[in-house]
Design brief:
The complex is a heterodimer of chains A (387) and B (277). Chain A has 387 residues and is an alpha+beta fold. Helices cover 41% and strands 11% of the residues of chain A. In chain A, strands 1-2-3-4 form a 4-stranded antiparallel sheet. Chain A is globular. With 277 residues, chain B is α/β, with parallel strands linked by helices. Chain B has 2 domains: 211 residues, Bacterial phosphonate metabolism protein PhnH (Rossmann fold, 3-Layer(aba) Sandwich); 45 residues. In chain B, 27% of the residues lie in helices and 18% in strands. In chain B, the strands form 3 sheets. A 7-stranded mixed sheet of chain B has the order 1-9-8-5-4-2-3. Chain B has a 3-stranded antiparallel sheet with strand order 7-6-10, with no helix packed on it. In chain B, helix 1 packs across helix 2. Chain B is globular and about 55 Å long. The chains are: A alpha+beta (387), B alpha/beta (277). Chain B: Keywords: 4Fe-4S, Iron, Iron-sulfur, Lyase, Metal-binding, S-adenosyl-L-methionine. Chain B: One of its GO terms (biological process) is organic phosphonate catabolic process. Chain B: InterPro entries: PhnJ (IPR010306).
Chain lengths: 387, 277
């Protein structure tokens, strides 16, 4: 006799215990400390902070630990915590020109005031596995300059006396807050940038890449990339000057893109902008490409690629939303499926005799199709030989 | 629970959502944008419904949570446990004893009463979405009551299959004005929306939209004169309680094609079995 399945509660509790055990792993080994993660997995921590829209390296490292290193899960944990926090104050707008720089490169100007600074980058490392790290080899101290780099204003403002590059000006408008109000398409650029800033890095990277390969091409140059730390200030009623409440690390990318001009505007270089918490250079470059691509309509360019369609790009950028909705397919859908079963049976019974004939033809088709994968396999093999 | 407000959301957020709900009740079937918050459960798993439930729940309310009509499916268990934890409210599986019922994909078989509220979890609130993917466009279509495309879609079904091939999330027109997605309930449940005694609230967390069907509101399932709306029917009754008036799930009992049909509404089924016993 059939009895409906019960015991979901016990199953969930047991699943959580098993998960905790799996996360901890072999008890003979030391447990990872949150401080270790924050220090030694700092780029993962930075990505989690950027996509969760919460600057707190310790909590981001905790999220990373709790998620067993699953970045999307860690972003979700931190985001769900963020949403419970009260909003105590709003900071003064950050001036990235005042950044204490640790990295600053420009691909458009060879020599820039303040100089090009590589900083701690993976760029010119040879991607050879460093087996010394398997044996916990000693790491030498870095070379240190006599004094810290001085703050430099943005390169693009400094070096463009001719006005060939468009200037961004503050129109003083109160920015829309995507964490408090639902986005209302079409959204303005400031709102778009907020959405991109918390967008999934892999997604933005793929979209940015697509513009380089012709789906909405716009000839980008990396005008300036800067990474460093910046003081965050708030205005307090009793004090005349803003009060510093701490320091955060930021990455910023200013992309310069060709613009052929339109009836209303002379040809000019235009800009795409990327900004993220922490050291997130790849993210900010991708973000800048996508920001510029999304300006297609504003600049009167033809909209040809997915990266140029604001609703498409922005509605699908958030990894918390995307992973939630994809993963919900795991939930039971017995009822909808039952409804479809019933319909399918009805449609098939109405389909009648020619149905069988079509079925046999399908089998023939399948046989014919089988040849195609065989051809693909051949090419794969020849590719494998070449290296 | 320590460190969190009653029912998880802070009072300002609840107030914002309740304002949205008032607007939704005033304009039946209209999708009201609201500042949806992240919940500690994934989007797509009922965060919209949970935000509405959190906003309307009082300390004395009794809560019931169902998924696919059942109280004991894992996600229903999880959501019920969440509210027990963050709100400390009493919960029940008995439809008649609940003040607030949060549901996914079903309307209970037991008729609801005027002092009950049914909260639906909604994945895609926009009934026109799969015809027109752009939100900008669909908003204009709603404003202009431009619903012809929906009838064209249903007509194409008839032309291709001989009848309408939408079996769940079957579009309805609410109070003669807005075409609305009843959430992915089977069309079997659509008639229960019409002139309901209970207030019905719909929350879509990821899409940040909420809407309502107030009590005693006309709700018509879209159809044609020569192809009237019909609900699913089964040849056999529920194998456990013998009900002929409830939505039945198909249960596979062996690996040689054996199957039986049982009520998807577990509370309804159990109550009927008790009555017989």
């Amino acid at each position: 006799m059939y009895v409906a399945v019960k015991g979901g509660e016990q199953a969930i509790a047991n699943a959580h215990r098993w998960l905790a055990d799996r996360r901890r792993g072999d008890r003979e080994r030391d447990a990872l400390s949150v401080a270790q993660l924050a220090e030694q997995m700092n780029l993962a921590v930075d990505r989690v902070m950027a996509e969760a829209s919460l600057y707190d390296p310790e909590l981001a490292a905790l999220a990373l630990k709790q998620a067993s290193g699953d970045l999307v899960e860690a972003v979700f944990l931190l985001r769900a915590y963020r949403t419970t926090l009260p909003r105590l104050a709003e900071t003064v707008a950050l001036d990235t020109g005042a950044m204490r720089l640790e990295r600053r490169v420009s691909a458009t100007y060879k020599d820039v005031p303040g100089g090009q600074v590589l900083g701690p980058t993976y760029d010119y490392t040879h991607r050879l596995l460093d087996f010394l790290q398997l044996a916990d080899g000693e790491v030498p101290e870095p070379a240190r300059a006599e004094q810290a780099l001085e703050a430099c204003p943005p390169i693009l403002e400094q070096l463009d006396a001719e006005g060939l590059i468009e200037r961004e000006t503050d129109d003083g408008a109160e920015p829309y807050d995507i964490t408090r109000d639902p986005p209302d398409f079409p959204v303005d650029r400031a709102t778009r940038l907020q959405m991109l800033a918390r967008g999934d890095e892999g997604y933005l990277l793929a979209l940015g890449y697509s513009t380089q390969r012709g789906y909405g091409r716009n000839h980008p140059f990396a005008g300036e990339i800067r990474i460093g730390t910046l003081e965050v200030e708030i205005a307090v009623e009793e004090c005349e000057a803003p009060v510093c409440i701490g320091e955060i690390a930021l990455s910023e990318c200013q992309m310069i893109n060709q613009f052929a001009g339109s009836r209303d505007r002379a040809p000019q270089f235009t800009r795409g902008y990327g900004l993220a918490f922490g050291r997130n250079e790849r993210k900010t470059m991708a973000m800048a490409l996508v920001d510029r691509a999304l300006r297609a309509e504003e600049l009167g360019e033809p909209v040809q690629g997915p990266a140029q369609q604001p609703e498409f790009v922005l509605a699908h950028a958030d990894s918390v939303e995307a992973s939630g909705f994809v993963s919900h397919l795991k939930l039971p859908h017995y009822v909808d499926f039952q409804s479809e079963l019933e319909l399918l049976r009805r449609l098939r019974s109405a389909h009648g005799q020619p149905d069988g004939a079509e079925d046999s033809r399908e089998t023939v088709d399948d046989g014919g199709k089988k040849k195609e994968p065989a051809v693909e396999q051949d090419t794969n093999e020849s590719e494998q030989v070449s290296p | 629970m320590n460190g969190y407000n009653f029912a998880y959301l802070d009072e300002q957020t609840k107030r914002m959502i309740r304002r949205g709900l008032l607007k939704a009740v005033a304009i039946p079937g209209y999708q009201v944008p609201f500042g949806g918050r992240e919940m500690p459960m994934p989007y797509g798993w009922g965060t919209g419904g949970m935000q509405l439930t959190a906003s309307i729940l009082g300390e004395d309310d009794v809560l019931k949570v169902i998924d696919q009509g059942a109280d004991d499916t894992t996600n229903a268990v999880s959501i019920r446990a969440f509210f027990e934890r963050v709100a400390g409210v009493e919960t029940t599986t008995a439809t008649a004893e609940a003040d607030v019922i949060q549901t996914r994909h079903r309307i209970p078989e037991t008729p609801l009463s005027a002092d009950q509220i049914l909260v639906f979890q909604v994945p895609i609130p926009e009934p026109l979405r799969f015809i027109e993917p752009s939100e900008e466009e669909t908003r204009v279509m709603h404003a202009l009551e431009e619903y012809g495309v929906m009838h064209v879609k249903l007509y194409e079904d008839i032309a291709r299959h001989g009848h309408i091939a939408t079996t769940y999330a079957y579009p309805v027109k609410v109070d003669g004005r807005y075409v609305t997605d009843p959430s992915p309930i089977p069309k079997f449940d659509n008639p229960k929306l019409h002139m309901s005694e209970a207030l019905m609230l719909f929350g879509a967390g990821r899409e940040k939209r909420l809407y309502a069907i107030p009590p005693h509101t006309r709700v018509e399932s879209l159809d044609f004169e020569d192809h009237p709306f019909e609900i699913q029917a089964w040849d056999e009754p529920c194998a456990l309680c013998g009900a002929r008036d409830s939505f039945l799930d198909e249960v596979i009992t062996d690996d040689v094609g054996g199957r039986m049909f049982v009520c998807s509404d577990t509370d309804y089924c159990q109550r009927r079995q008790e009555e017989v016993a």
